[in-house]
Write a structure and sequence with these properties.
Helices cover 66% and strands 0% of the residues. The protein has helices spanning 4-10, 12-23, 26-42, 53-75, 92-106, 109-120, 125-132, 136-154. Helix 3 (26-42) crosses helix 4. The chain is globular.
Length: 172
């Protein structure tokens, strides 16, 4: 039987991927994983052997992510680190992946989280709801809205999140 620490190490790739999806930059994601591991080791007595450690660790990481966002918002110091731009002449698959990543990162955080938990990490709706601290129906709704919005964005039927809204004139 694997020890707590060995099992924790086995889940590091998942934690890194989940943190990258939430944080949208490598440095913050690495910090989230480090803080998650530290909190898990400090709270080893709160983990119930035989339960889902991946879900437990994902919950810790998610809570740390939102705590960090709240802290940064209070300090008004959150500055998004720009993602590197691709080079002209890249293969079409790279361009499509870049478009997907851009559309994915324009989703609201709760939709990114739900889609990451269910679609990427493979958690069931019940497990994702437990991690996100909401009802199963809420997770299903968020995943559905995220998939719909992603499709619209990728099909060019929805403007980017940072596009300005058209001027609406009201007749007098």
């Amino acid at each position: 039987m694997a020890s707590f620490q060995e099992t924790l190490v086995e889940h590091l790739p998942h934690l890194r991927a989940f943190a990258r999806l939430l944080a949208r930059n490598r440095a913050m994601a690495d910090d989230l994983v480090q803080e998650t591991v530290l909190r898990a080791l400090c709270n080893i007595d709160k983990f119930v052997p035989g339960t889902n450690m991946k879900a437990w660790l994902s919950t810790i990481l998610r809570n740390e992510f939102y705590n960090e966002l709240r802290s940064r918002a209070r300090m008004a110091a959150y500055v998004a680190i720009p993602r590197p731009q691709g080079h002209a002449g890249e293969q079409e698959s790279h361009a499509e992946m870049r478009d997907f990543e851009k559309a994915f990162h324009e989703l609201p955080a709760v939709q990114r989280e739900a889609l990451s938990l269910v679609g990427i990490s493979g958690f069931s709706y019940d497990e994702a709801a437990e991690i996100a601290g909401c009802a199963q129906g809420t997770v299903k709704s968020r995943v559905c809205r995220a998939r719909t919005e992603l499709k619209l964005r990728l099909d060019g039927e929805m403007p980017p999140a940072n596009a300005s809204a058209p001027d609406i004139k009201i007749a007098a």
